[in-house]
UniProtKB/TrEMBL annotation:
Subunit structure: Homodimer.
Cross-referenced Gene3D superfamilies: 1.20.1050.10, Glutaredoxin (3.40.30.10)
A Pfam family annotated for this UniProt entry: GST_N_3
Organism name: Sulfitobacter porphyrae
Domain GST N-terminal span(s) in chain numbering: 1-78
Superkingdom as given in the UniProt entry: Bacteria
Annotated protein name in UniProt: Glutathione S-transferase family protein
Transmembrane segments: none
InterPro entries, per database record: Glutathione-S-Trfase_C-like (IPR010987), Glutathione-S-Trfase_C_sf (IPR036282), Glutathione_S-Trfase (IPR040079), Glutathione_S-Trfase_N (IPR004045), GST_C (IPR004046), Thioredoxin-like_sf (IPR036249)
GST C-terminal domain mapped to chain residues: 83-221
């Protein structure tokens, strides 16, 4: 069985978990306190980051590389289009959420509110929290614009771009940092992807000291 070293609310780990679940790959989840830099974990990934996946006898790191490997070795059901231009758009949006969204929103909300406490690194920086709360509005509006023109974020079918976005937003939703009333089309998109069987394990996550809001597990939120 595959084994994933992860942190429950890490959007990068969640993206890999969604890909594995969509492909129906059974996986053992191992929570890793990566910030403690345990020697065994550092041997698995000298970068000292999660996720780290053991699959097919290979120890692999970096969520983008992991998801590409899963897609190439388990092409059904597809999470990447066949057309090169469409594949480019999927990769662009995955990078958008894992880079720009993460830097402007996730790191300033989730990391300040949750990670600092878990890692015993002090209190949230209110300046960062305010900046993240402001920036997420821009990103939700951009998603709404995309979804006004497409069925899914990157086109007419669900792709890895949707999983990347959902991984970040579900982590933020766990701490009630997403205003779902800002856009009906984004809310409908999230409800659609949240109802997929691949999402069930994420909705069962519990972080000690941070109980999820009541709507988190509600498919009709």
């Amino acid at each position: 069985m595959a084994r994933l070293f992860h942190v429950p609310l890490s959007p990068f780990c969640r993206k890999v978990r969604l890909s594995l679940a969509e492909k129906k790959i059974e996986v053992e989840l191992v929570e890793e306190r990566y910030w403690e830099q345990d020697p065994d974990f550092m041997r698995r990934n000298p970068a000292g980051k999660v996720p780290v996946l053991r699959l097919d006898g290979i120890m692999m790191a970096e969520s983008a590389a992991i998801c590409e490997y899963i897609e190439e070795t388990r092409p059904e059901p597809p999470l990447m289009p066949v057309d090169p231009v469409q594949r480019l758009e999927v990769r662009r949006l995955v990078s958008w959420f894992d880079d720009k969204f993460h830097r402007e929103v996730t790191s300033k909300l989730l990391y300040e509110r949750v990670n600092k406490k878990v890692m015993k690194q002090g209190y949230p920086d209110s300046t960062n929290v305010k900046a993240g709360a402001k920036a997420i509005k821009y990103h939700l509006d951009y998603m709404a614009w995309l979804l006004d023109h497409r069925r899914w974020l990157a086109g007419d079918v669900m792709t890895l771009a949707d999983f990347a976005a959902a991984a970040h937003l579900s982590s933020l939703d766990y701490i009630s940092d997403v205003d779902w009333n800002r856009s009906d089309v984004v809310k409908d998109w999230y409800a659609k992807i949240k109802s997929r069987p691949a999402f069930r394990a994420l909705l069962a996550d519990q972080v000690p000291g941070f109980p999820p809001p009541k709507h988190y597990n509600d498919l009709d939120f």
